[in-house]
Amino acid sequence: MATFKSIRIDKTETGTAASYVDFDDADLMDGDVTVRVTHSTVNYKDGLAITGKSPVVRRFPMIPGIDFSGVVESSAHAGFKPGDAVVLTGWGVGETHLGGYAQRARVRGDWLAPLPAGLSAAQAMSIGTAGLTAALCVLALERHGLKPADGPAVVTGAAGGVGSVAVALLAQAGWSVIASTGRPEEADYLRGLGAAEIIERKELSEKSRPLGKERWAAGVDSVGSHTLANLLAQTKYAGAVAACGLAQGMDLPATVAPFILRGVSLLGVDSVMCPMARRIEAWARLARDLDGARLAAMTTTIPFDRVIDTARDILDGKVRGRVVVEVG
Q1: Rounded to whole angstroms, how far apart are CA atoms 116 and 181?
Q2: Do residues 230 and 204 touch, judged by C-beta distance below 8 A?
Q3: Cross-strand bridge partners of residue 85
Q4: In the predicted model, is pLDDT for residue 1 greater than 70?
Q5: How much is the mean pLDDT over the chain?
Q6: Mean per-residue pLDDT for 235-263?
Q7: What domains are there in the chain, each with its CATH number?
Q8: Beta-strand relationship, 216-221 and 104-107
């Protein structure tokens, strides 16, 4: 295959521009494994990269797409051989290294994980970075010692990719889940994923008091800013919030009160450079505990030529749950 279908982001005089192009195999970056990409996904970060609304891309030209699944074509890495089914999330792919919105990718084998047993390539991308991040958040809360008997768990941005998987995983683990969303029309969807209670985003998105009524023992937050501050202020004694996103903003206008008066913990969760051992643990948890019907309910599948439009939609809050891209 001398050339293959791809999306390429180029630098322009006014910013950046994304377009569908044929990409030359000779222009792929260095790596010891070449993968035939079959599926990818559209994450919030992909939306930022394609639209140029945030400086996610740090090399031009760039093939975006921070996730992909596919089949190894050739390998000089001891851990993989041709024909192996693999999945990749993070590691700067789609940001500094050519990414998953292409029919072929060449990457370091150390970035690849075997496709988890029990999951198809499409299901792995239905989970993707967003679902992996949600699982890492749940694992972080559990390592902190929290359990469903301690009280409810709250999930912000609940109708989004991270939020949808977090709601489903927490509910499956026995938590009473409070889902916060700015889209009340998604209440039935969220209850179908296992949410016990739905609250309006505006309850958490305004300026926070130093401390509020204790409402939940645990939280998964992909929003940041005032929302995260409110979560912390209303977390029960010795509870914790796992923070993994910044949809509302990168700031954290909070006080130290929840930390020094209630012993609340803020757990930072990163999925980009997360060590492989922890990734494998999270993928195993997802394959074991994420109900297939719930995963299907939160997933929309699109053809490759819909990626750029969908990237704009995800930033406009028009995308529910997860989006799988059929690449191959």
Answers
A1: 31
A2: yes
A3: 71
A4: no
A5: 96
A6: 97
A7: 3-115+298-326 (3.90.180.10), 129-268 (3.40.50.720)
A8: unpaired
